[in-house]
Amino acid sequence: MTAVEPTDRPGPGTGTDAEGDAADGSGNRHYGFPAPLFRALGRIPVPPPADPRTWRSPLRGRWLTSVLGLVLLVGLPVVILTGLLSYIAYGPQFGQAIPGDVGYLRLPPFDWPTSPSWLYRLTQGLHVGLGLVLVPVILTKLWSVVPKLFAWPPVRSLAQLLERISLLALVGGILFELVTGIMNIQYDYSFGFDFYTAHYWGAWVFIAGFLAHVAIKLPTMVRALRTGAPGRWLHDTTAETVPEPPDDEPGHSLVAVSPSPPTMSRRTLIGAVAGGSALVGVLTIGTTVDALRPLAFLSPRGRSYGTGPSDFQVNRTAFAAGVGPGIGDGYALALRGGPAGEVRLDRAALGALPQHTATLPIACVEGWSVTRTWTGVRLRDLAALAGVPAPATAFVQSLERAGPFARVTLQGNQVLDPDALLALRVGEDAGAMADLSLDHGFPARVIVPALPGVHNTKWVGAIDFRSA
Ligand code: HEM
Description:
The chain is α+β, with helices and mostly antiparallel strands. It is 37% helix and 13% strand.
């Protein structure tokens, strides 16, 4: 690192006084700082990244940044919205979304619908899948603005200080969300803190930064896209590629002050980013589209699980849940809440009740989902049997006592949906059914249309139907 006098620096010490900052007679701009402080700042050794001459790509400029920004402007709100919807799907009104108490950030709760049955599959598939697909765009956007992140002096006015704080939330927030989200879908929790709590609060930090950034940069983006002559920038070959014209921030522009010769055209760069996103999409889509499952190389739960009716994803195995093969011995489901007290049904009695078959997806918060055909007793028939024909909620308890989702409250609409089942059998289609395997919840499990996967309780021991 070298100490660079303000006048030596191509950044703040040169250029016209476009921002109207005061000067000290030496030709230097002060950026609102008292002159002695500005001179002292100028003697601080400047790390090479803060020297604009370090950044030499002739591709950088407002037009390129704005094209990438436009893609993120369309894509990231979908990722944000579907993430928040997932929080609501977990039922914060029952205190079973994590984190529990979010104070002023409490979202208006509503009953998560059961129709269409693929709703959560869609929203969570989009959240994880689109989030992954946008990674190449986000990284390229950061590359395109990296000289600005190191701009010197780092703060030039109060407004710019506030903007830089919002950038900390934006850049820190998105990187934190990407890293924790990707580690979560790989079942890697080596970060040591609770994923759900951190990812939720991290999301709000990012949302605040994102809203501020869009509000500040939208006019610049529109101007850059309008004046950027897309025909020109996109059709230029490598040899024809020249830096964008200087913009209105001399000394702080993305346009390189000493550009190196082009090694690729803008068209190639944008094509490479689009290709990277498409590749991530192809490797991910099999986690949500059954027919493309062999392609799901990026998902630890995405590919093959052997053969037969139980060949589909298992998130929490019976072993991990401390459930042994002897669970069926002496099994009796307890139904509670009715005026006549507890009703107990062993598995043979459950099998003797009217059976209903439904083809429903099961969709995990980690993005994977799979469609299966399920047969069992309708939850609403069990509610009627318990003596609570129109329950407001149902409290389902698993025989797995210690797990985080061993107890789940279902909304009234989730109990009364005609396809909501206490499933006893499962298969790829109605012609190839078998009893649930132990890992899939034998003797009986809940399956409800559009419910987040983890709330489809396995190894169900008791259901408490509540009318209020
Ligand atoms: C995760 C999403 C994003 C990240 C991490 C990000 C990051 C950044 C950073 C760090 C800067 C430099 C700020 C400065 O010091 O001037 C910047 C500039 C910019 N961003 Fe974003 N941005 C994101 C999304 C967007 C979106 C959605 C838009 C669309 C409105 C956008 C449009 C722009 C524009 C027009 C500039 C100004 C370039 C210039 O003044 O030369 N960005 N972005």
